[in-house]
Amino acid sequence: MALVRERRQLNLRLPLPPISDRRFSVSSSVTTTTVAATSGCNGISAGDLEKLNVLGCGNGGIVYKVSHKTTSEIYALKTVNGDMDPIFTRQLMREMEILRRTDSPYVVKCHGIFEKPVVGEVSILMEYMDGGTLESLRGGVTEQKLAGFAKQILKGLSYLHALKIVHRDIKPANLLLNSRNEVKIADFGVSKILVRSLDSCNSYVGTCAYMSPERFDSESSGGSSDIYAGDIWSFGLMMLELLVGHFPLLPPGQRPDWATLMCAVCFGEPPRAPEGCSEEFRSFVECCLRKDSSKRWTASQLLAHPFLREDL
Ligand code: ATP
Ligand code: MG
To answer: Which of 31, 37, 98, 248 could form a disulfide bond with 271, CB atoms 3.0-4.6 angstroms apart?
Structure first.
């Protein structure tokens, strides 16, 4: 199986350890540090910004809350340092390229890019999403609220897929919220812009837990799966997780490893919505979590699903 052959490349980004255990040592010294001046973007230069606190740090960089010294406008600044593995700088470059091309209310907005070539630091200035991520809502979301989120996320995915962009890392931690109840797709570090119609997306990037069966094992689909359908699988899993409060492919509390996950995704039955959910939601999840990617609904089809009808 392709996964077994290439397991060393697998990126099993399951629940992150506590911030203190991660490879970034983020100390209070970042607080109120002025961002070193570099070339400007959209009228804002890096020297105009003041770091307030760390919003998050993932595998690829540190995200700071920053304030514009003159306008007091708040932004998020995602930075990768030169002493990091070059793979992370490449990821940030890829994210920059995608954010430059996108302009949608359902995708986090990029206000500009700062580069410090001498030290190899690259930063993206983004709109600040003040409501955290969907991860914090796991288990506490009603079907009605879920439908509201689903509509926005699917509009975002439909927009991206029309631009031939595959996200490849849809998961609760990469969906950002603001106080206007808007949810936006973020973190394009492992996304891909498809150039040729034959491009495939079976590489093991993104968060393994949310990877679709055909991405685990490209041979199962004869190597010709619908490449956008991988995002729909991840989206379906995420919907279920937000409702039930735990990662749906495994029993609550079980810490997954790649082998358990691979077996659950490739050999197990797709997870279903639990008893007590509406028929519409059960059907919605089933349309997202079809193991055969050619039978999975597209983002546009899902937007017309009865679960998302206004009057429900
Ligand atoms: P990972 O590798 O874990 O996916 P990453 O390094 O790719 O992370 P992001 O997912 O883009 O980085 O951001 C990490 C965290 O920073 C997010 O989960 C979120 O908490 C916070 N964050 C990112 N962008 C913003 C934003 N625009 N506004 C507010 N918070 C943000
Ligand atoms: Mg992320």
So the answer is: 248
Measured from CB, residues less than 6 Å from any atom of ligand 1 are 55-56, 58-61, 63, 76, 78, 108, 126-129, 133, 173-174, 176, 186-187, 189
Out of 48, 103, 169, 226, the active site residue is 169
- Binding site residues, as ranges? 78
Per-residue pLDDT at 9: 39
Superfamily covering domain 41-127: Phosphorylase Kinase; domain 1 (3.30.200.20)
Q: For 204-231, how does the pLDDT look when each residue is reduced to its tens digit (9 = 90+)?
A: 556 788 999 998 877 765 555 688 999 9
Q: Is 226 a catalytic residue?
A: no
Ligand 2 centroid–CA 309 distance in Å is 30
177 alpha carbon to ligand 1 midpoint, in Å?
12
Which residues are CB-neighbours of 141 under 8 A, at least 6 positions away? Answer: 149, 242, 243
Decide: helix, strand or coil at residue 50.
strand
Q: Which CATH superfamily is domain 14-27+132-308 in?
A: Transferase(Phosphotransferase) domain 1 (1.10.510.10)
Q: Residue 26 above 70 pLDDT?
A: no
Mean pLDDT for the chain?
A: 81
